[in-house]
Amino acid sequence: QDKKTAHFFDDDGATDDITEDPEDLNLDDYQLLATHLGKAGGLNFGMNAVVMKLFEKGDEPPSESCPMFYGIIDARHSVDQRFWEHVMPAFFFKNERAVVSFQKDIALVQIAHSYLGMTHKTDPLDMRNDFLFTGMAVIRNQCYGMTSCGTGGIWAITRSHDLENYFYGRTMIEDTASSTQAFLNGYKSVYVAPFANKESHDQLMCAVPKIGANYLEALERWDTGAVQCLCAQGLPSRWFWICFPMQLLTFAMIIYPAWTKLGVILDLTSPSDLFDHLGDRDVLVCLVPAAYWLILLIVFVSTALCSPKTTNWLLRFLILLFNHTYPLNSVASVFWVIIPAWICIAGSFPFTFDPIFAICGSLVLRLIEWMIVLKMKGESERVGTSLKEFSIFRSQQMNMVTVPIKLRAVMKGFQTGYADVFGKKDNSFWISFGTAQAVIWVQLWLCSVLLLMVISIVVALVHIFMNMDDPHILVCCLFGMALAIIQFWMMLEPAMAVMKGRSLKLSLRHTEVAVLIAIGLAVVFMSQGERLGIFNSN
């Protein structure tokens, strides 16, 4: 209908004009306003209702010259009178003549979350997500790339048509999906950081925290939604197939040279010795990554100097790539859990790295990491917040704790994503209080890892006492023990938190399967260990 004549009808309790038989409805006589379920559908419906009220009152509808600001505050969250005072300036720009104008390309302003009573000591599951809000978000804001976190997101509505699709409703996480949609359409975002050294009740927005089990369920939902976004917005799009191969190529340029005989470079006396010692293939493996990184550095610096807007635009695509693929990175966490056990049980390193270059390379990467962290801390202080070292530790801790959640989310995300893309099945519906399956898997994971680390330390000690005269085994076992102790220390506190007031319940069939798997692995290691290079020092 014509929106100029749109109005609401009072409910008189009469339903005689509505047929009870859906087959008698003529769909051509109706316009479907809500095309999505879940939170996105509710937000879109509410926005449509507000705009219809504007038309009914004769007020000007949302446009670029008359934007409507749509703030999202979830039920557990609350804001105070300072909220709009800190949010609204981000949507406007003041030039050198002090003329203030609305920035049409700013679609979103996101503020930080804070939770009542939560501190580093009382937050073993990192519900505060402090590293994101005081570190990563601050850096993302440098390229106007902070994606929505749902609640605390304020959107600038500059149109009155197609509002039923404003918030992206094909996934469980309408916030990330809607941010992706906005970025791909050329819009940007601004982030408002939390106040430094202020309690949660003194921040712009504070909330009642979820209990541990419900929070883990929420994490699984967010991770599942990320994979759904990958299926709906990444895999069908050209930007993803440009960024993702570039990411894999970058990883390869870092890792692959480590398998070459770099150690012989220390014995070179002339350039001609390079090919004599390494061979053509290994020289190529060393030179190609060096050239790749040089070209990448030149392109980035040139773009940053000549066209900062282009650099910011490219960086926002990298943020989208991370948001869509981060659950897949949990495979790397499994790798780092297995490594200490492998070294301690086998008594040898699983890869033939040159020790000097492995250590030097690791130190170089750590130096770069330290520089990045220092930059993040400096930027945090500049915008009035503070990135604590403990916040970084909590983030690293939870990255290991949530491995089973992310693996489950990957499977569920691809299943439901396939159902959405090919079966047109709605994925937007979710519930706040799940069936506590996530916490059970986390309990199993943490208890298994802690047990594995204890076994690894015991086996390493046995190796050391039985091979006191073998320096190779001594070095390997001591190194493996150090890694196992670090893993145990990092996992212990979250394990105690998720096990508090709970007991790990295993049925007989689960126990039998676990025992059979353990026996099978032991048989394989013992019978095929030498052939696989596990139980020798080569």
From TrEMBL:
Keyword Metal-binding: no
Ranges for region Disordered: 1-21
Record key words, sorted: Glycosyltransferase, Membrane, Transferase, Transmembrane, Transmembrane helix
Membrane topology label: Multi-pass membrane protein
Acidic residues composition-biased segments: 11-21
Compartmental location: Membrane
Bias (Basic and acidic residues) ranges: 1-10
The keyword Transmembrane is annotated on this UniProt entry: yes
GO cellular component, one term: membrane
Organism, scientific name: Haptolina ericina
Name assigned to this protein: Uncharacterized protein
Domain of life: Eukaryota
PANTHER family in alphabetical order: CELLULOSE SYNTHASE CATALYTIC SUBUNIT A [UDP-FORMING]
TM annotation in the entry: 239-259, 290-307, 328-349, 438-466, 472-492, 513-529
GO molecular function, one term: glycosyltransferase activity
